[in-house]
Each structure stands twice: as C-alpha cells, then as structure tokens.
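Quick one from the shared queue. A colleague (R.T.) flagged SCO2525 family SAM-dependent methyltransferase as missing a structural entry in our internal table.

Convert sequence to structure tokens.
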Amino acid sequence: MTPPGPGRNSNFDWNEFNPESYLEHNYAEARKDDIRFVSTIGDFFLGRLGGSDALRGVDVGTGTNLYPALAMLPFCRDITLIERSEANLKWLEREVLDYSRVWDPFWRELAAKERYPEVADPAGALRTKAVVESGSIFTLPRNKWEIGTMFFVAESISADVEEFREGLRCFIGSLVPGAPFAAGFMEQSQGYKVDGRLFPAVSITDEDIRKCLKGLVEDDLQFTFESVGDHPLRHGYTGMILACGRKRRAETGTGV
Ligand SMILES: C[S@@+](CC[C@H](N)C(=O)[O-])C[C@H]1O[C@@H](n2cnc3c(N)ncnc32)[C@H](O)[C@@H]1O
C-alpha cells in the first residue's frame, strides 16, 4: 500500500465529506450524462449476464450514489456497498431502508430494459440485498465479488497517480475472474469541493485507465464518454468516462 503523504487518500478527513451537500449538487436533479451512463451499464450487464439472479455484487466508494447498485439489482442476491467515510456510511444505512425519489429517474431508465421489470419493488429489493460496510478500496478482499461497480472513486480520492492505479487494481482484484464491472471516472479532474471543503483528484484520461487495466481485463473493455457540454457539474474537469468490462479469466498481467 502507498504510504501516507500530502495529497494522498489518508491525508483527507473523509468523515468531513457532507453527504447531503454532495447528493444535492450531484444527483438531486438527474443529469442526462448520468442517465445515459446508467442506461449503458444496464445494457452491458444484460449482455454479459443474461438470466443470472444470485450473484454477489459490490459497489466501492458508494458515497451518496445509488444508481450503480440499482443497475446490479436484478442480477444479485446481495450487494455490498463499501465506504470509508463515517458520514456517508450513516447516510447509506438510512437511505437503503427506503430510498428517496431522487433515484426514480434512474430506475425508470433501467426498467425500460429486459430483466429490470422483474424487480417490482426496487426500493424493497435494495433494502433486502444491500449490505453497507465500512472499508477501503485499498484493502478489499481478493477474488470475492461476481459483479462490481465503482463510480468516481479511484481518481477522486487522492491526488497521487500511484494511488489511482492502486485503487483501480484493487477494485478489479476484488472481483472473481470473468466478473463484469462498470466504473465511472471524472476526466482530467482538478479536485472538487463538497460543502466548501476541497477533496483531491488525479487528472486522468481513458489512456490512463486503459494502461492500468492492461492485462487485468478481457478484450471486450468498452468506453463511453460524456463531454462537459453546456451544463458542467462544476469547474475543473473535461468530461466523464464510463469503462465497462470483465475481469480477465487468467490473471497474468501486472496492469502497469
Ligand atoms: C467523489 S466521491 C464518489 C461517490 C459516489 N460513488 C458517486 O458516484 O458519486 C468519492 C467517494 O469515495 C469515498 N472514499 C474515500 N476514500 C476511500 C477509500 N479509501 N475507500 C473507499 N472509498 C473511499 C468517499 O467517502 C466518497 O464517498
């Protein structure tokens, strides 16, 4: 594990991350780019998983974003939501009991596809399946989960490029060989403020993701890009990147 130091993950007080403020800024109104992402994730999982309905799923660094978990719902018997911040853990424990209307537009997008309508009560299903767990991306167990998501985490929890790579590798490492995954990234992010408090980022592009995942994933890795457009979420980033793929069946590569 990378030792602590300025700009690194352990140098920031994640308990000071304000969940209400982050939710309000990022998800209170469903953005078109996020809706397109959840649609692409749904299509990707449907294409790779067909009729599976009892997988063990994980979302890493969930924060206050439930759309990745919703995209895994029909395929999973349980979905572990892993967070480092006590404030976000408390928010998640409440939210999964009966999630708010904020997530309805995301579910509507998914429910227009196959398999998702099988989940008649998504809020009830999430209540039953979600397991909120305190943990860190850097200490995830290896070869555990059969489907996984990680949104805006590896590049948005540290200013150290080595930690970005390590986080991404740990996420892939936590999946069983062949497991499908979807991961979102802010492109060329300069860091971000939550309720006036600055949190770090590593400025990355799809090339950095590709290089890091080399040898760790199957050849069907696919990227989707959303440019900032007319309604950027904030200053200091050039777009959003979605990477969908499967962990390599024979783990031979080093990744970097
Ligand atoms: C930019 S937010 C992304 C939140 C959410 N996944 C989303 O899509 O909006 C980064 C999240 O990573 C969490 N985090 C920070 N350090 C972490 C670590 N070492 N392991 C796991 N999560 C961490 C933060 O608490 C925060 O919830």
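Helices lie at 19-26, 32-49, 67-72, 86-95, 104-111, 122-129, 161-173, 206-213.
The pocket of S-adenosylmethionine is lined by residues 9, 14, 17, 26, 60-63, 65, 82-85, 88, 136-138, 151-153, 156-157 (CB under 6 Å).
Added to the table.
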